[in-house]
Design a protein that fits this description.
Elements (H helix, E strand, L loop, with lengths): L4 E5 L9 H12 L5 E6 L4 H10 L7 E4 L4 E4 L18 H8 L6 E2 L10 E4 L5 H13 L5 E5 L3 E5 L5 H11 L7 E5 L13 E4 L5 H4 L6 E3 L4 H15 L7
Parallel strand pairs: 1-2, 1-9, 2-3, 9-10, 10-11
Antiparallel strand pairs: 3-4, 5-6, 6-8, 7-8
Helix pairs in contact: 1-7
The protein binds alpha-D-glucopyranose.
Alpha-D-glucopyranose binds next to strand 8.
Amino acid sequence: MESRGLLVSDLDGTLLGDEEALARFAAWYRLRRASLRLVYATGRFFDSVVALVGTTSLPEPDAVIGAVGTELTLFPDGGNVAPWPPHPQGWDPEAIRAMLAKIGELEPQPPEFQTEFKLSYFAHDLEKRFLADLRRELANAGHYVETIYSSGRDLDVLPPGVHKGSAVAFLASEWGLRCHQVIVAGDTGNDASMFAGRFRGIVVGNAQPELKALRSPEIYHSDHPFAAGVLDGMEHWLDKTAEGVFG
Ligand code: GLC
């Protein structure tokens, strides 16, 4: 049985945001690399994460869950853990794009943010009701998709069952880890799926309301922002783990 734990953290607004706190996190992690794997789960693409690791104090991760959970890549070589996402049944991005083009509230993000598995829009201050209606309209047309809304601004439409949370669950199972050995950290709506399973969670102090609203004994809300919140949360969970680092 794998004895190392796993920390999966979002980047922008979670580990990134305070360079000094990030340097403290990096120094902390350097001492724990042998017992703790590190994965970044982000809306960014892999190449952008490689560039950040080269220019900030972000430690080298073991893998990157990129493009809001639609990419899963080993670091640094860019190899696949396994084909990901799993063959999405009935996923028809062209038809979905054509439907969404008719909705005035949705402005497509620039082409460089779009992929075969990630359709991304700017959509300001959408209400829950609007999102529920949108999901229903898509489902009525046979499109069962994930709609992920973050920061009152970004809407990502992804294949069914594909998001950061399912990518973390897949990785944990590939690496032989149990739920309590996995800690996830985030700040916005595209992180929410990571908190929906049975992993231990850290919500950083600067999180958006959609994450601050999450309540569960497995979710720790830090008062500290950015990387200082991740560090505080790691100390919280490691304190609670009686049988050594991750048992
Ligand atoms: C990142 C991505 C963007 C996405 C957002 C929220 O900013 O670049 O495409 O919509 O994360 O997931």
